Each structure stands twice: as C-alpha cells, then as structure tokens.
C-alpha cells in the first residue's frame, strides 16, 4: 500500500529537525559559544513545536520534507487528525528526551529534574 521509509532516512530527517532547532536557539541566545546544557529544554520545546505544527499543517516536519517523507495514517494512507499528530509527536519527544545526553551523561529529563543516574 505505502512505501516504507528506512531507518537511515528517519534518522537523517530527525537530525535535520534537531539541528534546525539548535541553530534557531543558538542564534537567539547569542551564538553557539553561549550554548550550554541549560538550553536543551528550549531546543526540545522548539523541536516539539516544529514537528507538531508542521506535521499538522503539511504532513511532515522540515527534515521529513527534505527527505521526501510524509506522515500518514497506517490504516488508509490518509492525513492524520491533529490528535494523532499530538500523540505521535509527544511520544517522539519522550524518546528523544531519553536518548539525548550532555557531557556528564545526563539526559534532558535528568537535567530538567535535577537528577543523575549512579551505580550502586
């Protein structure tokens, strides 16, 4: 029915989205030299908004558009309803949060909560 998208294209698209958001936050916060771990929540929030809004409006984020990817309903290939996009994007951000680390090995969720994992 629909042609599937490879993991490589998915990762490339999400990387473009993340780097675009990083560039915007960097530009408005005084440049890359001014970027620190405290900017990560801002990047994540912009990433969430970018993916959410563009997927609702055009069926794809910036990175997905560049790689010829469109998000559609599994059942019939139609456009997603806004609630479906909200659920999809929220779950995506939860995963990104869990796998994005700083120089101390802390994820965004750990920095936001002021926590760190230690071996016992």
From TrEMBL:
Pfam families, alphabetized: RDD (PF06271)
Identification of the protein by name: Unannotated protein
Lineage: unclassified sequences, metagenomes, ecological metagenomes
Domain RDD, chain residue ranges per copy: 5-94
Membrane-protein topology: Multi-pass membrane protein
Transmembrane segments: 12-32, 44-63
Subcellular location: Membrane
Organism whose genome encodes this protein: freshwater metagenome
GO cellular component: membrane
Predominant location: membrane
Record keywords, A-Z: Membrane, Transmembrane, Transmembrane helix
